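To: structure desk
From: M.T.
Subject: fold request, one chain
Message: Could you run this one when you get a chance? Sequence is below, nothing fancy, just the single chain.
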Amino acid sequence: MSGSDRKKLRESARFSVAPMMAWTDTHCRYFHRLISKKSLLYTEMVTAPALVLGGAIHLLDFNIEEYPVALQLGGSDPAQLAEAAALGAERGYTEINFNLGCPSDRVQSGSFGAVLMKQPDLVRQCLDKMQSACDAEITVKCRIGVDDQIPEKILPSFLEMIENTGIKRVAIHARKALLQGLSPKENRDVPPLDYLLVREMKRAFPGLHITVNGGVKNFTEAKKHLSDGLDGVMIGRAAYHTPYAVLASVDSEIFDDECPPSALEIGAIMIHYLEKHLKDGGRLHQVTRHMFGLFAGQPGARHWRRGLSDISSLRDAGMADYFALLEEITSITRFQTELETV
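Reply: Done. Structure tokens follow.
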């Protein structure tokens, strides 16, 4: 991987959409890319055993239009992770992110995710093997600590170990992961956020590109984190549920680039993608389920959500259904515009 490629990745990492299981699939990423050309996008977590032992190479599929896009891997076996990283690099991923933050029971049972923060020596072995196996940039996503660990004590030593392996970029979810007693959903909300500690880690490790993740609800909060000295901001659920509201300002205000098309225009641009997906044997809802929040905060938002929900209940839903809904939203938008100009 060239130095210029690494520079581009570092620049795009100033704002990223978090990897989210069952959400950030290739359809979601294509849709998000229409709203922001510059943000760094992530795949859902793909496990190394699924690729190496299960042969599920299709999990690495993505559209070239999704660039810049990074692959997130989960696992705990250094050799498997190395092979999985090599497979990802061969298929065009220029960044491969190592998941050290997921708290789910399924992940724990496989001895990977956040639980690995209790095994820094194993993490070091994994990172060494992954970096030796491919030219893609290897990055890390972690928590500030796990269970009874004291973040102020464990996080500095953990980041020091990571930096010593040659890793240059780390995304930190600013909450502990409580692996006993809390569900994955509760682990995203219940443990208190500690943004101050993440900022302190940036001061302690100026050579690391540190991205903050967790609890960032909108674009205004994202800009505040950047102004506080952090290198990047990663938004998850808010970017998914209100994609246009969160992503539409990113290119112009963070990357000094052009503003995206309007939400209505995005809906129209998706027509070609939807038609191709149906032609390839897919179902409309596989794509449109990621588009429910396109008009959040705008006229017609509720009508759009209800319409897409109705479409998803139809087994034989087709483009005629989508065209009709888009036309209804166009009429609502036009009527609202006329009211505002009176």
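Reply (cont.): The CA atoms of residues 213 and 316 lie 39 Å apart. Let me know if you need anything else for the meeting.
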